[in-house]
Design goal:
heterodimer; A: 543 residues; mainly alpha; Cytochrome C Oxidase, Chain A; 17 helices; 1% strand; B: 199 residues; Four Helix Bundle (Hemerythrin (Met), subunit A); 7 helices; 0% strand; binds protoporphyrin IX containing FE; binds copper (II) ion
């Protein structure tokens, strides 16, 4: 074990620990190994996620009864802003790409690392800097930001709370995201193993690739928008101030030119995870490989053209509304293509309902609910009725939490055994999944109902007639939280003391399952040569 | 465990190009605003733009184009192994960058002395379009000047690397820094007509 040259067969703890200097904290935070960086991201992202969940529970607690329940209006504003900023910029956007992309992309490609390992580590430092600045914004300056995560002007230009620092933090996080995207595109182009043509890329790689392009092309717009807020606050440029010739609507355009594509940065990787899991647990090659692969690109492309649907009520020409409404419906097509292909993959498969599969299947359902309610928002006429109500809040939680969040949990259950070489308790995992699935539906379905009946979002108080719906939703949040607690406890126990698993516990045919669990440093002792597709289970010898 | 010392120059170049896209898009946001506001208040823009100093602007354009040329010469000189020519060319480039910044400083100074800057009394009293024009002017040229500064620093850094005789892939590094410098030049090639010429 003290042998300094890692041999695939020799060390049973792989990259996790080389004896001696390899296991100190310092060795981790200076490592350029993509797997270690992936884990660094994972730990950080999960910590922030838990903070975000606690904030979400507090929001729900406040809404348990009409009137002031636990916090006043200003605190509620700060809470939902913080909840939104953490969940969006610290959890869901970096979530799957930075954590699982880093952990798995080179393994899936048959590469030893990403194209720019040191840049990769630098991105993590940027992420941590941004995250810590965002948290600092809470305790310094004129109080925690209260603008909502969208930082809309004119309020964000005028409020005396600590918006400037928060905006700087998000700017740095954006830079981290750009560098990750750039690294992944280059890696996918340059570091595929011999025999790994574009037609043999695992679908998760396709989705990361499409995501990376969106990260590269959309994030700079966010960067400039944030710079403009800072200029507005610090220099008084007046670019969004009607009294000085500016126009606040221009801010909304710039903001959503990034932030709508960012929705696809959030959800595409989740779709990729699900596309890996469904064939493996159906014991069947994926149906419509190219349709799934190319629809990722189509979503990335079309998704960049629909930002205007966030502004139907803020004043746009009727023509613009019509066009954006139409384009929004167009994006539903590639998403639906994916769903149909997953269902076709399931058809006549021999389905194994292991925990990763349960999460993947519930992704499909919850994402579909979220996506279909998105069409109600994408149609201008109905959007005017439900705009800025809890219907919207329910919609995006279905997509982000029910969709991407569940895909993230699916990835945890699918790949953690590979990373740590140990298995969690599957029965407990299934029970935890059950609680979460029931909880999330109670929580957000009833929020949507309240929204349709007219309950506005971002209000800490409401009319008595909404009380029952809000109480049900809040109870849902507790069920969900219990499920989360159970899931993380179970995963932690599995990682620390679970049963050892072999190289390929699920019978996958992609390259990561050909190396030991946990994988050795530099991944492959001999450079792999790819001779079959990622879902040719027969040729991989696992069927 | 470090990776084997194998370099992928095509990969490095691809990465650099992707990064340059992001820089273009960053400025793209400002150009977008320029376009929209120009369409709304063309008269104000024309009046305000007429006050910019065409001589200094042209001088700066010439400086940047020259420096793009010298960087290109430096890159091919290094490929031919002409080390001192490379260093000389890099020196001229950095010099051009510095003169550019000094000129920019004079330009800003003169405007500020005339009470023209975001939030100044004169702009607050004037037309909205004028105020927007100057806000965009300061933001765009300021952001660009920051890029000039960064680019010059990078050029200086490669220069020292080359002088120190580092061999591992310095050609590729210089090429990438050179690409960055061309981007700085390119962005200015858009700024110059939009702000100085067409109005
Ligand atoms: C236990 C989990 C969660 C609960 C109980 C929860 C609850 C809530 C509540 C009550 C609001 C405020 C609604 C309003 O007054 O407008 C909210 C807003 C929001 N949530 Fe969550 N949420 C949870 C998880 C998540 C996750 C996983 C994400 C993203 C991935 C997320 C993203 C957001 C965003 C972006 C907002 C909008 C903030 C704003 O209006 O500025 N939430 N959430
Ligand atoms: Cu959108």
């Amino acid at each position: 074990m003290t042998d300094p040259t890692p041999s695939a067969a020799g060390s049973d703890r792989g990259f996790l620990a080389r004896k001696g200097e390899g296991s100190t904290i310092l060795a981790w935070i200076t490592s350029t190994d993509h797997k270690r960086i992936g884990l660094l991201y994972l730990y950080a992202i999960l910590s922030f996620f838990l903070v975000g969940v606690v904030l979400g529970l507090l929001l729900r607690l406040e809404l348990l009864a009409p009137g002031r329940t636990i916090v006043d209006a200003q605190t509620y504003n700060a809470l939902f802003t913080l909840h939104g900023v953490i969940m969006i910029f610290l959890f869901i956007i970096p979530g799957i790409p930075a954590a699982f992309g880093n952990l798995m992309l080179p393994l899936l490609l048959g590469a030893r690392d990403v194209a720019f390992p040191r840049l990769n580590l630098f991105s993590w430092y940027l992420y941590m800097t941004g995250a810590l600045l965002a948290l600092t914004a809470l305790f310094t300056g004129g109080g925690p930001p209260d603008t909502g995560w969208t930082f809309y002007v004119p309020f964000s230009a005028r409020t005396t709370t600590n918006v400037s620092l928060a905006v700087t933090a998000v700017f740095i996080l954006g830079f981290s995201s750009i560098l990750t995207g750039l690294n992944f595109v280059t890696t996918t182009h340059r570091l595929r193993a011999r025999g790994m043509g574009w037609g043999r890329l695992p679908l998760f790689v396709w989705s990361l690739y499409a995501t990376a392009w969106v990260q590269i092309l959309a994030t700079p717009i966010l960067a400039i928008t944030l710079i403009l807020i800072l200029a507005e606050r610090l220099l008084g440029t007046g670019l969004f101030d009607p009294a000085r010739g500016g126009d606040p609507i221009m801010f909304q355009h710039l903001f959503w030119i990034y932030s709508h594509p960012a929705v696809y940065i959030m959800v595409l990787p989740g779709m990729g995870v699900v596309s890996e899991i469904i064939p493996v647990f159906s014991r069947k090659p994926v149906f419509g490989y190219w349709a799934i692969a190319l629809s990722s690109i189509a979503i990335a492309g079309a998704g960049s053209l629909v930002w205007g649907h966030h502004m139907f009520t803020s004043g746009m020409s009727d023509m613009a509304i019509l066009v954006f409404s139409f384009l929004t419906f167009v994006v539903a097509i590639p998403s639906a293509i994916k769903v149909f292909n997953w269902v076709a993959t399931l058809y006549k498969g021999s389905i194994a309902l292991d925990p990763p599969m349960l999460f993947a299947l519930s992704f499909v359902l919850l994402f579909s609910i979220g996506g279909l309610s998105g069409l109600i928002l994408g149609a201008a006429a109905t959007d005017i009725h439900v705009h800025d109500t809890h219907f919207v809040v329910g919609h995006f939680h279905y997509v982000m939490f029910g969709g991407t969040g569940f895909a993230f949990f699916a990835a945890l259950h699918y790949w953690l055994p590979k990373i740590y070489g140990r298995m969690y308790n599957k029965r407990v995992a299934t029970i935890a999944w059950g609680f979460m699935f029931v909880g999330i539906n109670i929580l957000y379905f009833f929020m949507q109902v309240a929204g349709i009946r007219g309950m506005p979002r971002r209000y800490y108080d409401y009319l008595p007639e909404f009380a029952a719906l809000n109480q049900i939703a809040t109870v849902g949040s507790w069920i969900l939280a219990f499920g989360l607690f159970l899931m993380f406890g179970n995963l932690l126990r599995g990682v620390l003391s679970g049963e050892p698993v072999g190289a390929n516990p699920w019978g996958g045919a992609t390259l990561e399952w050909t190396v030991p669990s946990p994988p050795p440093e530099e991944n492959f002792s001999v450079e792999p040569v790819v001779t079959h597709g990622p879902y040719d289970f027969r040729e991989a010898g696992v069927l | 465990m470090s990776l084997a010392p194998h370099r992928d120059e095509a990969g490095d170049r691809l990465g650099m190009w992707l990064f340059l896209f992001t820089e273009l898009l960053l400025f793209g946001g400002l150009f977008l605003l320029y376009g929209v506001y120009l369409a709304r208040t063309p008269e104000d823009f024309i009046r305000a733009g007429g006050e910019l100093d065409l001589v200094l602007g042209t001088a700066n354009t010439v400086l940047l184009i020259t420096s793009s040329l010298t960087v290109a010469v430096a890159v091919s000189a290094l490929q031919k192994g002409a080390r001192s020519l490379t260093l000389g060319m890099l020196g001229i480039t950095v010099l051009c960058a510095l003169i550019f910044l000094v000129n920019k400083g004079f330009e800003w100074r003169a405007k500020i002395d005339h009470d023209i800057y975001p939030g100044s009394k004169r702009l607050l009293a004037g037309e909205g379009g004028e105020s927007v024009f100057y806000s965009l002017y300061y933001l765009t040229t300021g952001l660009h000047a920051l890029h000039v500064l960064l680019g010059a620093a990078l050029l200086g850094w490669v220069g020292f690397r080359i002088r120190g005789g580092r061999r591992d892939g310095e050609g590729a590094v210089l090429e990438n820094v050179g690409l960055y410098w061309h981007l700085v030049d390119l962005v200015w090639i858009f700024i110059f007509p939009l702000y100085y010429l067409i109005l």
